[in-house]
Amino acid sequence: MPRNGSTALSRLPARRVLAPTLAAVAAALVLTAPAARAQRYPERPVQVIVPYAPGGSVDVIARSLAQKLTERMGQTVFVENRAGAGGTIGVSAVTRAKPDGYTLLLTSLGALTVTVHLTKAGYDPLKDLAPVSLLATSGLVLSVKDDSPIRSVRELIAAAKARPGAINYAVTGVGSQTFLAGELLKRSLGLDMVPVQYKGGGPAAAAVAAGEVQAGITDSGPIQPLLQSRRVRVLAVTGGQRASAMPDVPTMEEAGVPGFRIDSAIALLAPAGTPPEIIDKLNAEVAAALKSPDLVDRIHAASHDPKPNSPTEMKAMLKSEFDRWGALVREAGVKLE
Description:
Layout: H1 14-40, E1 46-50, H2 57-73, E2 77-81, H3 88-95, E3 103-108, H4 110-113, H5 125-128, E4 129-145, H6 153-162, E5 168-171, H7 177-189, E6 194-197, H8 201-210, E7 215-219, H9 223-228, E8 232-237, E9 263-271, H10 276-289, H11 293-301, E10 305-306, H12 311-332
Parallel strand pairs: 1-2, 1-3, 5-6, 5-7
Antiparallel strand pairs: 3-9, 4-7, 4-8, 4-9, 4-10
């Protein structure tokens, strides 16, 4: 029998005794590290890049959401506008950012599903971005200055046919969803109208109200206050149903353009490679924020409806819209000169 109370275990080398224990500790650390990282996130301010000029629906919703996330997460969430090239400048900046959850993209899906089929964007939205959540949906609007002699979609069509090339209209940048909507409208009806490009929905809507252009195809948010102040007249919305904020305005189909339907969506994304536990935490925070009555009111005021979803659902939606718009671009033969 071993002397001095020793055992067989006590005579084993220490490293043989400790190895299983250390391995178990290491495994536990590996499993708990992601959860701990998500629990600590964010530990510093979070930048949200909006690839459009201030004043449009995307910008308004981004700033409203950033304020609510700041309140919920205990760190400043701030918006930076990087407008230009139909949204590609801002999107590109996010695809090149470190995938750590501290640089996010809040954008209209048009910059990810339309522009990339029309320009050399320099990124693949399906590979270079990680969807976090859908935020809100709406339709685009077709508008004119309030004192314009054009009072309906049919009258706009008649004016364009009577004076080919004389009607110009505002859109939000080269290759944007509004740009493509105009191209599809022209091709479906055989119209000759000229797009005038602006860096965001706010400047485009202001151009319509100022009479710089004869018409405009823009997101609905910046048009709403101009409509209320009687500076613009909205001829139609492009969505599948009338907008709750403008119940008297017909859809394009109701206004005499069969089959013309374009919905707009706003989403939050991160650079590809962002840890999934951070994506999931952001998704949960966004979903909770979008239940806040004051944020819902702000989104409705921007003529959108809150519609959060999961990262998986957002990824599937992005792929579906990417494919759909790619097919529309090819079928319409739309090319940028």
